[in-house]
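dumping this here so i dont lose it again. seq + smiles for zinc ion
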Amino acid sequence: MSHLIQTPYTVPVFDLMHRPGEMREKSLDVVVPEGFGNAVIGVRTGSALHIDTRLESLHDGILVSGRVDATAEGECVRCLIDVALPIEVEFQELFAYSFDEAFDYTVHDDYVDLEPVVRDAVVLSLPFQPVCQEDCLGLCPQCGVRLLDNPGHEHEAPVDPRWAALAGLDGLNDDTESDKTEKR
Ligand SMILES: [Zn+2]
Ligand SMILES: [Zn+2]
């Protein structure tokens, strides 16, 4: 079996192995070696990520309970400014001593590797539609300025979409009128 490559996410557990009932806490400060996230927001490479864990020795393996604090960065989907969202997410996984279909993870060379667990927990907690603030007004559809930065912003030409809709209806009415005229 190949040896585990140690990363900032790997935690030695040899002192807990096969000693059911033993427990220990461990905190990790990770400089994220490889960023991850969804299409619109994610944890950037080189950013700081903090993990508090409690490691418990069970008969089958090591149960790891933890909490991740990270910052996800991306763009507001409405106004496109950069946003940084604090992420707090909890996880719990059993790292089995031997390969077992019931568990996704195993203890490897006396270490547990928290990277996939932490990544999955964080990615699942990320918004698919991040916004800079809940009431973000987005961008002006005519000139693209950010409306929150420009209170009362408006144009000479009709800017209200309802006006645009009415203008369209006028066109339809004209057609209807001309149809009627032809029939007469
Ligand atoms: Zn926004
Ligand atoms: Zn405008």
